[in-house]
Amino acid sequence: MSDPAHTVDPWRFAGSFLKRVLSGGIPNQPQHPPIPWAPVEKPLSDCKVALLSTAGLSMKGDTPFDMEFERQNPTKGDPSWRRIRGDARTGDVEAHHLHIDTSYIDRDLNVALPLERLQAMADEGSVGEVAASHYSVMGFQGNDPSTLENVSAPEIADAMRSEEVDLALLAPV
């Protein structure tokens, strides 16, 4: 059994009414064990930080997320992941996602992957270092997130470990 002090409550900020309404509207919710919480063990100013976006981002020239698969299978999304360079800017990245308005990302990458904001925090010393790589998945997985959970997430975690990332920040869209 997990320690409640080290467990993430996905409905924490929704309130009991919204939790009841929203969770009741999600068909076939998968049952998951509690999400573990790992406390940061060193000062943020000493941490190497990576970002993880759910916007379906890829570097221009890399294989994009498969939106045609999603069009043909509207209850499923591409469960793969992409690596984004740490020096990427708006013109270097494309967004492939049917469930969000990607025109905002086309104008400013920071709305989905706040690399410039993170670099500013590193420059001022709030965080120790910006990781060389960041990551993106397609947040929409429909009724079957198993490949994202069991394949992509562990691969992303391994990639972060190999770069000695101390802290990963989720940039959900």
Tags for this entry?
two-stranded antiparallel sheet, globular, 2 domains, alpha/beta, five-stranded mixed beta sheet, 173 residues, 9 strands, 5 helices
Description:
This protein has 173 residues and is an alpha/beta fold. It has two domains: 4-36, no CATH class; 45-171, no CATH class. It has five helices and nine strands. It has helices at residues 15-24, 67-72, 103-107, 115-124, 146-162, and strands at residues 7-8, 35-36, 48-53, 57-59, 81-85, 93-95, 129-130, 133-137, 167-171. Strands 3, 5, 7, 8 and 9 form a five-stranded mixed beta sheet that branches. Strands 1-2 form a two-stranded antiparallel sheet. The radius of gyration is 17 Å and the shape is globular.
How widely separated are the two ends?
A: 31 Å
- What is the global morphology? globular
Largest beta sheet, briefly? 5 strands, mixed
SSE series: EHEEEHEEHHEEHE
* Fraction of residues in helix: 25-40%
Number of domains: 2
Give the helix tally.
Answer: 5
Structural class: alpha/beta
Number of strands: 9
Question: Beta fraction of the residues?
Answer: 15-25%
Mean pLDDT over the full residue set? 87
Radius of gyration: 17 Å
* Stretches with pLDDT under 50, minimum 5 residues: none
